Amino acid sequence: MKHPIVRLLMQLGAVFLFLFAYLPLLVLSFYNHPSAADDYCFADTAIKHGFWQAQIFYYDGWTGRYFSNFLVHGTPLVWGWYDGFRLIPLLAVTGLLASVYSLLSELLRGQSKQTLILSTAILFFISIVSLQSSVEAFFWTAAVASYTVPTALTFYLIAVIIRWYRLRDGLIKSLTVVWAGFLVFAIVGSSETNLIVLVLFLLAIVGYRLLFQQKLDWFPGILIIVSFISSWLLFRAEGNAVRMGGNPHGGEFINSLVSSLGWLGMSFGMWLVKTPVIPLSILYVPLALRLLRPGSPVRYLFQVPAGVVTLVYVGLLGALIFPSYYGIGLPPAFRTMNVFYYFALYGWFYVLTTWIYFANRQSWQVERFTVPVGVPVLMVIWVGVAIWFSQPLKLMYNDLLRGHASAFNREMNERHERLLQPGKEVKLKPLSVQPPSLFVDDIKEDPEYLWNRCQAGYYGHQKLILE
């Protein structure tokens, strides 16, 4: 890809793909509304009982996710700022982008700013293509707090860890340890899914340093201790037993392990086919070779046994799936698979780089690699097919272009104005449109249903009746 025109076209293509994935999320965020599913329950509990008492209620009665509970009980609804929910998707997307950029700025240190920006852009596009549910990734606040936030914090934490090793001894380095400890505390307290990945990742660092470098690394060791204490805080919550105890299929270890491996193989294989990861990997090889050159400031990050890294990679992905089967006896929810594909994507290129380093050490003359002429064309075709079959992109553009999002926004605004009117009982019309990129669930015909009671309580009514 040394020809300047080809390089320019590839750069413009990366920018286009980023905007193609980012702009619908940006526009749809202005149509976002609080969901009847959970949002009003969190807000009503916090308003009636106080912010901190609400944490205790949910910690003891439903889940030990203390940090995500902290977030969802402080949403704009609690402040009386209804339109503030339009900012949540924008903040979630921006936060995820910023964390990815932070991570890549460490992994690609020494490369040009243009390379860093374009790498972030193309990886973000692939992330959106492979999403299982855009509404659970960016628009439904409960899922954002428990899955997207800890995922973004995990990427950022990895960047902080890498940065710590190159800081000079002093106050900044000491404060970075404290900051990293807080990030571990927040990640563990947001999601069991990210908890498992984080703990295994930290153990992998300590294990590698101990077994291959004969060094006892105290920094990740401290973070492991913090993660264990945080995990204890999460799992000791009585609410976890309440939430998990209702499913008789949970707790079957062997069946859960077998089912997890099957789901892992199927999901990973489909991901390789439905996203342009394979042609992109070929285009990535020249960049990987630059990262591995003698004198590269990040070369040491990839000088690890490729086989061991691959096993850790597969193990981490399996760990994302296993809790769903073991906890409730069912395949992972879409929001869990969103996280799965995030880590699959970024881990894939790290593993690939370690194998390229291994090939160099074996004198396989990989350093002479040139991208075959047909690969950029293959990339374009594969990207087109990926876009065509991408469910989240289809749903987002369909909701925008067919007016479903604007109709939903109008009806939800009208419903909000109706709910602001005084009255013991309020009758509401069903929504005529339920755009899947924005809508999770609605109140029910039964006025005693939990979501009806929560929303009624928030607005000061006794009952909500869906006509």
From TrEMBL:
<feature type="transmembrane region" description="Helical">
    <location>
        <begin position="195"/>
        <end position="211"/>
    </location>
</feature>
<dbReference type="Pfam" id="PF19528">
    <property type="entry name" value="DUF6056"/>
</dbReference>
<feature type="transmembrane region" description="Helical">
    <location>
        <begin position="138"/>
        <end position="159"/>
    </location>
</feature>
<feature type="transmembrane region" description="Helical">
    <location>
        <begin position="370"/>
        <end position="389"/>
    </location>
</feature>
<dbReference type="InterPro" id="IPR045691">
    <property type="entry name" value="DUF6056"/>
</dbReference>
<keyword id="KW-0472">Membrane</keyword>
<feature type="transmembrane region" description="Helical">
    <location>
        <begin position="84"/>
        <end position="104"/>
    </location>
</feature>
<keyword id="KW-0812">Transmembrane</keyword>
<feature type="transmembrane region" description="Helical">
    <location>
        <begin position="304"/>
        <end position="328"/>
    </location>
</feature>
<feature type="transmembrane region" description="Helical">
    <location>
        <begin position="12"/>
        <end position="31"/>
    </location>
</feature>
<feature type="transmembrane region" description="Helical">
    <location>
        <begin position="268"/>
        <end position="292"/>
    </location>
</feature>
<feature type="transmembrane region" description="Helical">
    <location>
        <begin position="171"/>
        <end position="189"/>
    </location>
</feature>
<feature type="transmembrane region" description="Helical">
    <location>
        <begin position="116"/>
        <end position="132"/>
    </location>
</feature>
<keyword id="KW-1133">Transmembrane helix</keyword>
<protein>
    <recommendedName>
        <fullName>Glycosyltransferase RgtA/B/C/D-like domain-containing protein</fullName>
    </recommendedName>
</protein>
<feature type="transmembrane region" description="Helical">
    <location>
        <begin position="340"/>
        <end position="358"/>
    </location>
</feature>
<feature type="transmembrane region" description="Helical">
    <location>
        <begin position="218"/>
        <end position="235"/>
    </location>
</feature>
